[in-house]
Amino acid sequence: MKIYKILILLFSLPFTIFCNPIELKDELGRRVKVPEKVERVISLQPEITRIIVSLGCGEKLVGNDYFMSKFDHIFYNVFPFGKKLPLVSISGSDLNLEFIIKLEPDIVFISPTDSWMADKIEKYSNIPVLALSSMGSFEKLKEEIKLISILTKKTQRAEELIFYFESKIRFIEERISKERKKPKVYLSFWSSFTKTPVYYEPVNLAGGINVAEGLLPSYKGTVGTVVNLEKIIKWNPDIILIHGNYPPEERAITVEKVLSDRRLSSIEAIRKRKVYYTFGFWFWWDPAEVLFETLYLSKIFHPSRFSQINLVKEGREIFSKFYHSENAFEILFKRLRCNEWKIE
Prior knowledge:
The chain is an alpha/beta fold. The protein contains 15 helices and 14 strands. The chain has helices at residues 7-11, 46-54, 66-70, 75-78, 97-102, 115-124, 138-152, 155-176, 201-205, 229-235, 255-259, 268-271, 287-301, 311-323, 328-335, and strands spanning 22-25, 31-34, 41-43, 61-63, 89-91, 94-95, 107-110, 129-131, 184-188, 195-197, 209-210, 224-226, 239-243, 275-278. Helix 7 (138-152) packs antiparallel against helix 8 (155-176), helix 8 packs parallel to helix 13 (287-301) and helix 13 runs antiparallel to helix 14. It is globular, with a radius of gyration of 20 Å.
């Protein structure tokens, strides 16, 4: 179900007709009135922050959140001005509410996993708070791009990025359209082998089957759940993907640990040593990174169909398209030691 029911209509209309606040239903099911004129933005949702920067309207940001300032791999490279933004969250679970109100944002974006933030901000102010996330869906990611572009008057740039995004996806789909065999894939995310997303579209579009798809998420606002080893062994995945967006020194789960775990020795992916890192969420998605990830997974799942694809070249092109940065991909590549992955 789409989270923005009026989004397609809005995207086709000129801004001049928007004379009243737009009412939207966010990922928490809340109806939020969003002002037509958005000049000052606080984003506590990294996925939205990245979209804002990729649309070329980062100057509208008036504050930075803890995650982007401490853990995002390329944020300050693609948006140097971000270093000058004041921190509005003291840690990953605390807000400087008084400071947020003082900055007078027209809107605050949060993740649906942080519903308490909406309650806290709206209790003490009239600032509209919108909880958004792609939730592992490309359609929702594109909807976010469209929505942000409407609010920031960057629709032409959004159309350009979405057209580019969709053209890359079509290229992948055309290459694997005749593939009858789809590998069963298990994703180990969030620093635990038994935590997995119940929906992760890059796997589907790359021609794989997420064995956990169809399970219910652990709680509202997330796509993650926890399974036991017995279920994973029963699924018997052909390929196991490990959450690789954590810097190497911070990875609690590694390819080596999984391959050497005797409890998993009967699994097809272990026996054939088909355990790889993938990017995964990094507090939801980076739109450039997840597009590259889909191409990367396509080459893992169906190597014969993508044998001529130079992933490093593709990565440079994709990140340059989204962020106008010539070295963002190299910085990410080096930080995550992607030379140890199957990226070539």
